[in-house]
Amino acid sequence: MGPDAEARRDLLELLDDRHGQRATLITSQLPVEHWHDLIGDPTLADAILDRLVHNAYRITLKGESMRKRHARTLTPTTPAESQ
Predict the structure, then answer these.
(1) Closest CA to 38 of 26, 21, 23
(2) Which long-range contacts (CB under 8 A, 24 or more apart) does 21-26 make?
(3) pLDDT tens digits, the chain, 83 residues: what are they?
């Protein structure tokens, strides 16, 4: 479920205010290719993504989640280990 109409307008206003003036850092587990669908409204999605992607540095991390990796070491795998 994506942002409602008010949240989309607020995000666009925030990005408009910062565009060309301040750095904006966005983190997401959702790939950028899916953001348009998540945002919903095609016109606002185009405007929002234009401001985010223009002059952006994108860092895509690969590999397994560190949380998943650490969870396996903390969670017992056999009943004997949990005693």
Answers:
(1) 26
(2) 24/52, 26/52
(3) 677 888 889 989 999 888 888 888 888 888 888 888 888 888 888 998 888 888 888 888 888 877 777 776 666 666 665 55
